[in-house]
Design goal:
This protein is an alpha+beta fold. It is built from 9 helices and 16 strands. Helix 5 runs parallel beside helix 8, helix 5 packs across helix 9 and helix 7 packs across helix 8. The protein is globular. About 40% of the residues are buried. The chain binds flavin-adenine dinucleotide. Flavin-adenine dinucleotide binds next to helix 1, strand 2, strand 3, strand 16 and helix 4. The site of flavin-adenine dinucleotide (FAD) has 33 residues, from helix 1, strand 2, strand 3, strand 16 and helix 4.
């Protein structure tokens, strides 16, 4: 039995795509080794990135003024939301979909004589008018990763910290840097997460745990060994842009934040409608973002707070263009140029060398 759409992988991206395809009246088959797996990650996004069709119940908390600490405190003035992960998953329901619990072995390239299909590990071949790979990105030592270690503490009166680069986590000033991320959760707890933004290899979780505990102690924040923890490790690069991939598998992950969930939610309708998500402008932005990742990976650790200080001093529209405008070539290029111009000479030189892969 062939469907209009076959979605391989039921993470946030695949489920969002299947859900929207069903909402638009398509027949949908989904394949995942564990389709009923409950998601446990804490997902967050900029409020202006989310699509209107998402019910308000999926927003766990929302803050108008998240804060970044670089060498100073900066109000970001852009609404940031923490999603209620179980509510998000439930809202992306799949009424009428054919759900197959299996692993996809490969998705052959279609040709004139071969329809779009996916072959399962069992050998079974599924066909559809359109087959989409939403299987995420496999880990590899060649890929930069984001890592984080978080603890959920009952202390709801803290401000939301998007990035706090202050050095009260016990790390040496010239050691690879990590920052603190703090967001309120729906159950009344607060997530404090020590995060390595991107590394190849990224900081390991034991080191991040040690740094987090040091930081919490130095700020007088009480925690216990029985507080729930969150462990984070995922690639921030990889995936293949194209009309047959979606989500992290489709290179949606922003290398400077690791975010891809809001992009998947926002672009699902256009993808279902058959629009290309990769016009030349989006491919050019993708190339610029990858250059940005090379710059981040190549900067001396002690320079990261200064880099983000300059970034968050840009107008909110420029920050938005760089962080969210996946096909806004003009805005992305303008934000990058303004950032470059705002940096001290020495950092510009380091950045140029890192971006070009020198040194
Ligand atoms: C703890 C944590 C917190 C995060 N926080 C954020 C955040 O705040 N905001 C944000 O945007 N991103 C966040 N991320 C990143 C986030 O994981 C990814 O952006 C997101 O999960 C990517 O979704 P995806 O559906 O593309 O891929 P995945 O979530 O990787 O889903 C892939 C799916 O494919 C299935 N699959 C794999 N192989 C096969 C196969 N062979 N056959 C069939 N199915 C297969 C898997 O079972 C899985 O269900 C976070 C990640 C973690 C781990």
């Amino acid at each position: 039995m062939s469907s209009d759409l076959l979605v391989c992988g039921l993470g946030p991206a695949g489920r969002a795509l299947a859900h929207r395809a069903l909402a638009h009246g398509l027949s949908v088959t989904v394949v995942d080794p564990n389709p009923d797996r409950r998601w446990s990650a804490t997902y967050a996004a900029w409020a202006d990135e989310l699509p209107n069709w998402l019910p308000p119940t999926v927003i766990a908390s929302s803050v108008d003024n998240p804060v970044a600490w670089t060498r100073r405190r900066i109000d970001l003035r852009r609404r940031y939301v923490v999603l209620d992960t179980p509510a998000l998953q439930d809202s992306l329901d799949l009424p009428g979909a054919r759900i197959i619990s299996a692993r996809v072995a490969d998705i052959p390239r279609p040709s004139r004589n071969r329809p779009e299909s996916a072959r399962l590990l069992t050998g079974q071949v599924l066909t559809a008018t359109r087959v989409v790979d939403a299987r995420g990105i496999p880990r590899s030592p060649d890929r930069a990763e984001q890592t984080a270690y978080g603890v959920m503490v009952r202390r709801p009166d803290t401000e939301t910290l998007f990035m706090d680069w202050r050095l009260d986590n016990g790390a040496a000033p010239d050691a690879p840097r990590s920052f603190l991320y703090v967001v309120p959760l729906p159950d009344g707890t607060t997530l404090f997460e020590e995060t390595c933004l991107a590394g190849r290899p990224a900081l390991d979780l034991t080191e991040l745990r040690t740094r987090l505990h040091h930081r919490l102690r130095s700020r007088g924040i009480e925690f216990t060994d029985s507080d729930p923890v969150e462990r984070v490790r995922f690639p921030v690069e990889g995936g293949t842009p194209g009309r047959r991939t979606f989500g992290a598998a489709g290179a949606f992950t922003h290398p400077a934040t690791g975010y891809s969930v809001a992009t998947a939610l926002r672009t699902a309708d256009a993808f279902v409608a058959g629009h290309s998500l990769w016009p030349p402008t989006a491919r050019a932005v993708h190339a610029l973002r990858r250059a940005g990742l090379r710059a981040l990976l190549g900067l001396p650790p002690a320079d990261l707070p200064g880099f983000f200080d300059a970034f968050f001093a840009l107008p909110v529209a420029s920050q938005r263009a760089y962080l969210s405008g996946r096909d806004d070539l003009r805005g992305t290029a303008a934000a990058m140029s303004a950032l470059f111009a705002a940096l001290p000479w020495r950092l510009r030189r380091d950045l140029a060398a890192a971006t070009l892969g020198l040194g």
